[in-house]
Write a structure and sequence with these properties.
heterodimer; A: 299 residues; mainly alpha; f41 fragment of flagellin, N-terminal domain; two-stranded antiparallel sheet; 7 helices; 4 strands; B: 454 residues; alpha+beta; four-stranded antiparallel sheet; 14 strands; 9% strand
């Protein structure tokens, strides 16, 4: 604190200092676009600002997660849709082979097509995205199935794992978006692979009775695939809803953050203009203050 | 009345006016000298009883200082409080800069990014890229915490150095007061000397901005100065050195000349502000950062421990973070050298799953320290810094105004007004000229009388 200044100079400097502080604050708000640029600007709202910012980061990440998972769900749904078509074709071939008008040659030809369809089904069950197997459950680095015509079911044993993974929406609510290939393609009486391979063998051996006996299993496997296709349809809807929820939450959070943190640029500009005017007026008034004393008039 | 007596009386009056002129000159010269108080040279009319042969005249009264001790005390009191908050305000504004309020940089941004990486890991828990990202984000968190703690430590060290420098300045100013006391003791008139007195009061005022002092004026005109009301700095011609001890750990300890700890007694002035900053404010903020770092590390490690990693066979989750001690958690926070396969993203029984990655991501949105999330807790620390800085700034401004008011009051009581001095100068000049005329007339009469005798 400067000693030796007269009263007027002291008060003038203090007033200037106050104007400068206001002017700097207004300038900071205009240049940064933020009302709160340091803790002392609004200590009471800092905790809330940090919380909202963290929530916004989370909503953004959830949205990125959902976009990624949407691709997976869509791919899985598309693959299952094709699997259902494959099963429909297999059932059609089975129905033709089951008639008494079918010949050994036509059944042998059908057997070849069924073998190809079995391979296609295996390929669909091994669908990958970004190097991960969509129907391998949690063991998504491992190929879940391989064609093995010597095996009773026409494929090797399921090499994946159970699908336990869940997604979280922006509110932390979890939901499943995948099912494992073992459950979809390869479970007991509804095993698509077993039914298709049994038809192939029956066609190859021209065993009409076996073909007819297998038709129930084929239909059951087809229904089973359809059920899982419905699950993926539901998962697509769930992902869409969650995406919309994350978008809305992000919007609300951005608005909240803006209300808490952003500067009112117009107000800041007016303040800056006012303080500059006041500052200039203060300098001008100070310059006009009489500097003379009675001494100046002594002869 | 003889002409010679009249001549002598006029000559005496001229001397009195000369003295008055000298006092006016002294006032004018020192009009803006720190510590100077206006002086007056009163004129005393002498006894005038012509019938008894006493012809009066004028004599110079005792040189009088208009210094108002009450006004001086008022200034010192306000300047002391101003000094504390000026110091605190300056330092706290530096600390403020170390706390990000946008959530887009520094510690809060690093924490947010860590939880985002956990969230991304939950989508592809077996993906090496996602695992590498988690490790990179964890390193980033540790680096930002260490950096923040280091900055805090550096600021505290600067605060301690400032306390030591202020203490040295206190001792220097106390030395000036001692010099005045010595002069006052050696020469009785020195205590009333306007120049010496101005130096002593200027030193006391400067001293009061540095430390809260109590000033007692002794009978011989010397000053006794006590810091914090009880720690002697100056008694008579003896100075008692104050020392800032920086060797006893992170805190500043103020010691009196006997080496006793007097830190608790000295709370005002810049020294009080610097000590409070180094001993109370910074450790408080650092403790908050340590608590945040410790809770974050413990919470993440606890969740990881409940999961299983991606090795074959799966192993219980290893700790991701490590720190030396809770009180040093922020600075010493580090990431354990894990392989990416050792990150436990799955829960036992669901190897390859994302159960644990989801639990890790959830740490970011649920209350972890009392009722606060990590982000809210960081905001609370920043909020405390902001509130302290605001309070210091507002108190600085209000006490600057109060100090100004106290100085204005003092100026009204004892300040030099150039206009008043000019009026006084004219008054003395006219009296001098009139008296010189009288002197001239008497001189002429004397010459006439002498001519008559010839």
């Amino acid at each position: 604190m400067i000693q030796g200044l007269d009263r007027s100079s002291r008060e003038f400097l203090q007033d200037l200092s106050r104007l400068k502080t206001r002017s700097e604050q207004a300038m900071r708000r205009i240049s940064s676009g933020y009302r709160v640029t340091r803790p002392s600007d609004d200590p009471a709202s800092l905790s809330r600002i940090q919380t909202v910012q963290a929530s916004l980061e989370r909503a953004t990440q959830v949205l990125a997660n959902l976009n990624l998972i949407r691709t997976e769900v869509n791919t899985a749904e598309h693959a299952l849709g094709q699997a259902v078509q494959v099963m429909d074709r297999v059932i059609e071939l089975g129905a033709r082979g089951a008639t008494s008008t079918a010949t050994a040659e036509s059944r042998a030809a059908a057997a070849i097509e069924v073998e190809g369809l079995l391979g296609r089904l295996v390929n669909l069950a091994n669908t990958q995205i970004n190097g991960r197997y969509l129907f391998a459950g949690d063991a998504d680095q491992a190929q879940p199935f391989a064609l093995d015509l010597a095996a009773p079911e026409g494929v090797t044993a399921y090499a994946g794992a159970a699908a336990t993974r869940q997604m979280e929406d922006v509110h932390g609510v979890r939901f499943s978006v995948a099912r494992d290939g073992g459950v979809i393609f390869h479970v007991g009486a509804a095993s698509a692979f077993a039914a298709v391979n049994a038809l192939r063998v029956a066609l190859e051996t021209n065993d009409e009775a076996a073909i007819q006996a297998n038709m129930g299993a084929l239909r059951s496997a087809g229904d089973h695939l359809n059920q899982h296709l419905a699950f993926y349809g539901f998962a697509q809807n769930r992902v869409s809803d969650a995406t919309e929820g994350a978008n809305q939450a992000g919007l609300v959070l951005r608005e909240t953050l803006a209300a808490l943190r952003d500067a009112d640029i117009v107000e800041a500009a007016v303040t800056l203009s006012q303080t500059r005017t006041h500052e200039e007026a203060a300098y001008s008034a100070r310059a006009r203050l009489p500097r003379s004393s009675l001494f100046d008039f002594l002869g | 009345m003889s002409l010679f007596v009249a001549l002598q009386t006029s000559a005496q009056a001229l001397n009195v006016y000369q003295r008055a002129l000298a006092v006016t000159q002294k006032n004018v010269i020192n009009a803006s000298t720190p510590g100077y108080a206006r002086h007056t040279a009163p004129q005393v009319a002498l006894e005038f009883r012509p019938e008894q042969g006493i012809y009066g005249g004028v004599a110079a009264g005792e040189l009088r200082s208009l210094r108002d001790e009450f006004a001086e005390r008022g200034v010192r009191r306000q300047v002391t409080v101003y000094g504390r908050y000026e110091q605190l305000s300056a330092w706290l504004s530096q600390v403020e800069g170390q706390f990000d309020v946008s959530g887009q940089s520094g510690v809060p941004a690093a924490i947010n990014r860590l939880f985002s990486s956990f969230s991304a890991l939950s989508v592809t828990p077996n993906d090496p890229g996602a695992r590498l990202q988690v490790m990179a984000r964890a390193e980033e968190v540790a680096r930002h915490f260490s950096g923040a703690a280091l900055e805090m430590t550096a600021t505290a060290a600067e605060g301690r150095r400032a306390a030591a420098e202020i203490t040295a300045e206190v001792n220097r100013l106390a030395g000036q007061v001692v010099n005045f006391n010595r002069a006052a003791r050696d020469q009785a008139s020195a205590s009333g000397d306007p120049g010496l007195s101005a130096q002593a009061f200027a030193a006391l005022e400067e001293l009061s901005e540095l430390v809260d002092i109590q000033v007692l004026r002794q009978g011989d005109g010397s000053f006794t100065v006590l810091a914090g009301g009880q720690v002697p700095l100056v008694v008579g011609d003896r100075q008692y050195q104050l020392e800032a001890d920086l060797s006893s750990g992170p805190a500043v300890i103020l010691r009196d000349s006997r080496g006793d700890d007097v830190t608790a007694s000295i709370t005002g002035g810049r020294l009080g502000g610097a000590v409070a900053f180094a001993n109370e404010y910074v450790p408080g903020y650092a403790a908050g950062l340590n608590e945040l770092a410790r809770n974050l590390a413990d919470a993440v490690n606890a969740v990881l421990a409940a999961g299983v990693d991606n090795q074959n066979p799966p192993q219980p989750g290893a700790a991701l973070f490590a720190y030396n001690a809770p009180a040093d958690a922020a600075y010493s926070l580090s990431v354990n050298p894990l392989s990416i396969e050792e990150l436990a993203a799955a829960l036992p029984g669901a190897e390859g799953g994302n159960g644990n990655a989801l639990a890790l991501a959830d740490l970011g949105r649920t209350a972890q320290i009392g009722s606060d999330t990590f982000a809210a807790f960081y905001g609370r620390i920043a909020s405390r810094v902001g509130a302290d800085a605001t309070a210091a700034r507002e108190l600085r401004i209000s006490h600057e105004l109060l100090a100004t008011q106290a100085r204005n009051y003092r100026e009204e009581r004892q300040g030099v007004s150039l206009d008043e001095e000019a009026a006084q100068l004219i008054e003395v000049q006219r009296a001098y000229q009139a008296n010189a005329k009288v002197f001239q007339v008497i001189d002429s009469l004397t010459e006439t009388t002498i001519a008559m005798l010839r």
